[in-house]
Write a structure and sequence with these properties.
Blueprint: H1 7-19, E1 41-51, H2 62-79, E2 83-94, H3 99-115, E3 120-128, E4 133-143, E5 158-161, H4 167-175, H5 184-195, H6 201-210, E6 214-219, H7 223-234, E7 237-241, H8 249-257, H9 262-267, E8 273-278, H10 280-284, E9 291-297, E10 303-306, E11 312-314
Parallel strand pairs: 2-3, 7-10
Antiparallel strand pairs: 1-4, 2-4, 5-8, 5-9, 6-8, 7-9, 10-11
Helix pairs in contact: 1-3, 2-3, 2-6, 4-5, 5-8
Length: 324
């Protein structure tokens, strides 16, 4: 195997061209970036670490991994109502990883930064004898005092989500060979949903433009678990209507043969859709960008699933207790 370039050569060759889009990065020639937020805005900061075979599969294509590294952080910015301002990327490459893999990762990462109009402002590059890992910090801007928060939910609010739920968890099952009877079109759709999240930046800005009172977060760990995070922050409960949960055609195809997969749809992660609460009027102002799936109650910490036959069941953090 050909020798891999050193740290500074890797940065200069693959990442400095990406950073050249924004003068704040100083072409990655200094120790840090220098930038100022737009007038009247606050800075929103988020960071996520992704480790091979924990948060992504090491056998996956580097292009797909690069997109996931960026997009999971952009999803956090969307959950706060922020517009992306820049990212800082730390990479730890396993020492046996070929440079060609790094080149493909960097190319895809740069293309995705351009797609979302978010500049690379800096970072760090290291080699490791352990698994490959990435840590990305994203900066966003939001008008002062208007960030979307988890503690803004109130009893009587309605509960809504963007997109469709459960696709990523089902996609991982497809990749693990657990749904061999699924048609290829559905299987590919679900695999893509697992590999490449779609951060809901436009829907987030619709909330900001509406000017209402919204609580929001992104669904990275599944509806069953993440709904409790808003409940905890706002001291409220929720009722979720199972038959109102938006599903893709691919997920419906899975459920036709495997109705037990509802547990994955409710408890699985990696969808990166937005979970939003607000008054009926405020949620209605978002139009068809969201689907209403339930309501907020005054039963603090209690998340109830109402099944299609009208039965009520306590929704466990990783799924549900019973289905009758």
């Amino acid at each position: 195997m050909a020798a891999r370039s050193g740290e500074f050569d890797l940065i200069a060759r693959y990442f400095a061209p990406i950073a050249g889009r924004d003068p704040a990065a100083l072409s990655l020639k200094d120790d840090a970036a220098v930038f100022s937020p737009p007038s009247g805005c606050e800075v929103v900061v988020t960071t996520d670490a992704l480790v091979a075979d924990v948060h992504f599969r090491s056998i996956d294509e580097p292009e797909l991994i690069a997109q996931k590294v960026l997009r999971v952080n952009l999803s956090d910015l969307a959950a706060m109502g922020a517009k992306a301002g820049g990212v800082v990327l730390t990479t730890g490459y396993n020492r046996d990883l070929p440079e060609e893999w790094i080149a493909r990762f960097a190319k895809s990462f740069g293309e995705d930064c351009a797609h979302f109009d978010v500049p690379l402002l800096g970072g760090d590059t290291v080699g490791t004898p352990g698994p490959t890992f990435f840590s990305l910090t994203a900066f966003g801007y939001v008008p002062a005092g208007r960030a979307l928060r988890r503690d803004a939910a109130r009893p009587g609010d309605v509960l809504a989500v963007t997109g469709t739920l459960g696709d990523a968890a089902l996609g991982l099952s497809v990749l693990m060979g657990k749904l061999p009877d699924l048609d290829e079109k559905s299987a590919q759709f679900l695999r893509d949903r697992y590999w490449v999240p779609q951060p809901r930046m436009a829907e987030s800005q619709s909330c900001m433009a509406a000017g209402g009172r919204f609580a929001a977060m992104d669904l990275s760990d599944g509806l069953a678990g993440d709904s409790r995070k808003i409940c905890s922050a706002s001291n409220v409960g929720m009722i979720i209507h199972q038959d109102a949960i938006p599903l893709s055609d691919a997920a419906k195809a899975v459920l036709e043969e495997h109705p037990d997969c509802w547990a994955q749809i409710l408890g699985g992660g990696d969808d990166y859709e937005l979970l939003i609460t607000g008054s009926s009027r405020d949620i209605s102002s978002l139009g068809d960008t969201v689907a209403v799936i339930g309501s907020v109650t005054d039963q603090a910490g209690q998340v109830i699933l109402q099944t299609p036959n009208g039965k009520m069941a306590e929704l466990a953090p990783d799924g549900f207790d019973h289905f009758k």
